[in-house]
Amino acid sequence: MRFLCAFVVCVLITSTALAATVRREQGTVSINRGQGMQKVADVTTGKPGDMVTAAPGGLGKIIYPDGCEVEVKPSEIAFIQAKSPCTGPILSSNTKSYLIGTALVGGLVTGIVLLAEDDDSPASP
Q1: Which region, left, alpha or beta, applies to residue 49 given φ > 0 means left and ψ of -120 to 50 means alpha?
Q2: Axis crossing angle, helix 2-17 with helix 93-116, rounded to the nearest 10
Q3: pLDDT tens for each residue of 45-70
Q4: How many CB atoms within 10 Å of residue 47?
Q5: Which of 1, 13, 79, 110 could bridge 6 with an S-S bond, Cβ 3.0-4.6 Å?
């Protein structure tokens, strides 16, 4: 059970590190996280699969962790991608840093949870 909890924590940390920022530049920009469209006040965070639109006169940007910016123009629909559209098959140095950091934090959390596990059963019968 503790292993499952550690795994869930690692997944949450990883998904947070790879989230994209959605920024309203002008006018009305909306995001759909699977529960209908919601207006973006100024800045919000989105995850892969979220849909971003700009109303007529609106302009928005999706900003990925590596600094890649995707403009969302009026009447366009943009989906937040799982990986930055600016990176090719080779990861940028920023993305590598996020992945390495995520792996280190995930490993640390998993190690702490596993070491903190209380096992009252004897080592031998």
Answers
A1: left
A2: 160
A3: 999 999 999 999 999 999 999 999 99
A4: 14
A5: 110
Residue 103, pLDDT > 80, answer: no
- Order across the sheet with 69-72: list the strands: 43-46, 20-26, 59-63, 69-72
Structure confidence at residue 87 (pLDDT): 79
The residue assigned the tokens 């550690």 is 6
Percentage of the chain modeled with pLDDT above 70: 58
Q: What residues does each domain of the chain span?
A: 16-112
The residue with tokens 């059970």 is: 1
What tokens were used for 10? 């690692």
Query: For residues 112 and 82, what is the distance between their CA atoms, to the nearest angstrom?
Result: 29
The pTM for the full model equals 0.57
Q: Is the dihedral of CA 36, 32, 40, 12 positive or negative?
A: positive
Identity of the amino acid at 37: M
> For residues 17 and 54, what is the distance between their CA atoms, to the nearest angstrom?
25
Token readout for 54 is 């700009």
